[in-house]
């Protein structure tokens, strides 16, 4: 990942045309179009919103790295993978209870604290109390079927 981060830093600097330390949705769309990646501006804005921790509507370097992590490991047309990866702050392919609850709210499958606790007791990895993407997907698919 360290080597990737250096590559990402170089990419970030190339995209950040005005060198303000931030990438706007339009700068990002222009860069993606140069790479012949066709993503609509509203999709880009939505993905930025998921990783924009300081809520300024732009990507700083750390947020950009997270954005690229999502792009490399998820599918743009699969909201479940996008939300999971956006919640995976340490790039481990695992999420904790709080991030799980956040995703559930985003996809209108709201769970209270007790339901989250029970779900984690039943499904999460007992050693570190985290949930993998496969387990997450199984739970969400089941909940959507039972909706």
Mean pLDDT: 88
Coarse structural class: mainly alpha
Report strand order across the widest sheet.
Answer: 1-2
CATH architecture of the largest domain: Orthogonal Bundle
Please count the helical segments.
8
Beta-strand residue percentage: under 5%
Shape type: elongated
CATH topology of the largest domain: Recoverin, domain 1
Total of domains = 2
Rounded radius of gyration (Å): 17 Å
- Give the SSE order as H and E letters: HHHHHEHHEH
Poorly predicted runs are none
| CATH class designation of the largest domain | Mainly Alpha
Number of strands: 2
Euclidean distance between termini CA atoms? 39 Å
What do these coordinates show?
By secondary structure, this protein is mostly helical. The protein has two domains: 1-73, Recoverin, domain 1, CATH 1.10.238; 77-147, Recoverin, domain 1. 62% of the residues lie in helices and 3% in strands. It is built from eight helices and two strands, in the order αααααβααβα. The chain has helices spanning 2-15, 25-34, 41-51, 61-73, 79-87, 97-106, 113-123, 133-145, and strands at 94-95, 131-132. Strands 1-2 form a two-stranded antiparallel sheet. Keywords: Calcium.
